[in-house]
Design brief:
This protein is an alpha/beta fold and about 725 residues long. The chain folds into four domains: about 10-205, Glycogen Phosphorylase B (Rossmann fold, 3-Layer(aba) Sandwich), CATH 3.40.50.2000; about 220-335; about 375-625, sialyltransferase cstii, chain A (Alpha-Beta Complex), CATH 3.90.1480; about 635-735, Immunoglobulin-like (Sandwich), CATH 2.60.40. Helix content is about 35%, strand content about 20%. A seven-stranded parallel β-sheet has the order 3-2-1-4-5-6-7, with helices on both faces. A seven-stranded parallel β-sheet has the order 18-17-16-15-13-21-22. Helix 1 (about 25-40) runs antiparallel to helix 8 (about 200-215), helix 7 crosses helix 11 (about 310-320) and helix 17 packs parallel to helix 20 (about 570-585). It is elongated and about 120 Å long. The N and C termini lie far apart (about 95 Å). Residues about 1-5 and about 135-155 have low confidence and may be disordered.
Length: about 725
Amino acid sequence: MERKTRESKRKVLFITTVPPFLYNRENQKATQYLIDYIINLSYDIDMIIQTRYDKKAFTRHFRNKVKVYQTPSVECRTYSHPFSCTSDETVNIAKELLKSNKYDFVVCNYVYSVRVIKELRKEINMPYCITVAHGTITGIGSENLIDRNNTAYCLCDPKVEAECLSYSDVVCATSSYELEYYKNIGVTSKMILTEYDEFKDLSELYIGKIRERRKKILKKSITYYPQFSTKEELNNHYHRACWYLPKLKNKCESVFFYQNMDKNIEPGERPSYMCPPTNNIDHIKIERGLFSYLKSLYSSRIILVWKNEESPILNLLKNLGVKILNVETNDLTSIEYGTYCGLYWRHILEPKERQSIIKESFDKFKKIYNKIKEQNFSYSCVFGTGPSLEEAYKFDFSDCLSIVCNSIVQNEKLLNHINPKFITAGDVISHFGVSKYAETFRRDLVKVLKEREMYFVTTAPFGYLLLLNYPEIKEKTIIIEQNTDDPVYDLLQTFGIPRLDSTLNIHMLPLANTFSDVVCILGCDGKSEVRDNEDFWAHAKEAQYIDLVDTGHLCHPTFDIHRKKKTYSRYLDSVKKSIEKGEKKNKKTYITLKGSNIEALKNKCIRNEYLKPYSNKIINLNKIVTRYYKMTYKDIEEGNVELKYGISEMRIDENNLYIRGWIVGNRKVDKIEVFIKEQKKGCCVMGTERSDIYKKYPQYNNKNSGFYYMQKFTNGKIKKQDINMYAYIGGKKKKVY
């Protein structure tokens, strides 16, 4: 519409079945906005209004700009065609007005009024006809979607609606998603997006009401967006849904895939690299029909976007509070494997339900803890899948609480030797994904949990999905939420696991720390210098499903790119954080049974001299740990602790005390405390480099044996004979000055 000058008064014929001025009704407010908009363009209006209206409000607001021709309203709720809502009298009055007046254009307010255009176009030389159908209100996103026969809201079959609108010269969409809807249903008239944004103007009134209406019809369903056009596209996500979206009573009872209107496709054979479903999949349905599709989008609790594209319909649904998740498998921004895996826990369950499940899991863990503590294990040992795991047969772990991880679960011989009490895993690709690799891991996991006195510990969102598919292992599974950035050393005190990298730091060390002060480590090698490194490190034989690794990449094509961005240094930092805080603040001792390329574990390797007595037989690890690592006063007095130490410098300048020294031995020194006249005055700073001591005592493999102490005192003079220093080893102390 071009703006006209005030001097050249022009007229518009405006035909409507909806009056303006009732501000708690979206359609009436929209009608008023539209009339105001036309008047603001300097047009006068002849209005045929087929209903009652507020004459006083009309005159007060529009003054002499609008002349009204009223016709009786028609009850059209039981009719099956929109044109049935426009009376013959309305058509006849329009005919007389068109014959006796020159109008710049005709505006049909809502699709019902288009009957006038259809009836009179053959009889009269009609001016330009414009239809404003207000699809923002009457179609998409309204509670009326549940009643497809209610033509009072133009909810006839989409093909009929398209046919009706196509009688108009121009169809004006009052929002971008309305324009998309008209294109989809096949309107042939010219379609434009108006300057007047009905959605924006009515959003405050409209969206709030529609959200409330949506709550009343919200279904326990998930719908995929957009519709599928090819068998390949449908196949890709259908078989994912069979694993990731099991039926859950009162939570997710239907999963909908919609075909395009002109397509008739069904899912094909499951790809060889994907896992089969574990349960009934009757709740996963393939549907057709645009109307049913829009209704499903509006009423579903979650929409899964499998093709990420800018969409007005999605924007509307977001404004209505619909949960929309991106699961496009080739979109680097989606991380679909994580979204799918945690969907039920994060987006289906209510907070109280999650809390209840975690409480149940904690109660289960406490019972298991008490049961295991009765066995009086001397220490714990965690087993990674690195090449050094192959050395496990050289050690006797009978007095050890063993904790294994990941695909070690496939190796029955090793499990018999280690006899683990716990297995941990937490990888959304390898353990909880849709690949054959993940399926094989789960098959072996279920088998060992059923056959052995073992428990599975994992992260809550992924463990919950596992239990939905394998409820038979519920009593053997403990799920814990990641709720802290710091390492965990007592799960009884803090039943939560850290947001760190790898199951070593997330699951195994928190478990081992909870049960023991001494933790042995095997199979955590870091990047190998002699073997091919898959991912970030190499794997031991029979601790990896080598032939199935590619199935994970085929299922999740963005994973490898994401993994490369997730640098190896993050893993190293996680290990360093776990080990250092364990030693310094929680009095834990960590021992690697074989050398490791992980920086934080390099100086933790068990000493060769401890192993010499076992050169031709299985190593009694319990004796070594008890003798050299679990120290008592008796051990210290009998000389089982080897300590070499010395003070390199001690200065007392006025009241300033400075001490520099070194200490090495076969046991890690936790701290050195300084006492002045039998009063504790702090601790030395430890870990400074002393290459001279390293050369003198290479057997202790400690380049950072130095320490120093600085302090200023104001109460009296200090003498050297007033100073005492104590080294703490395993919680016990030895005087070193």
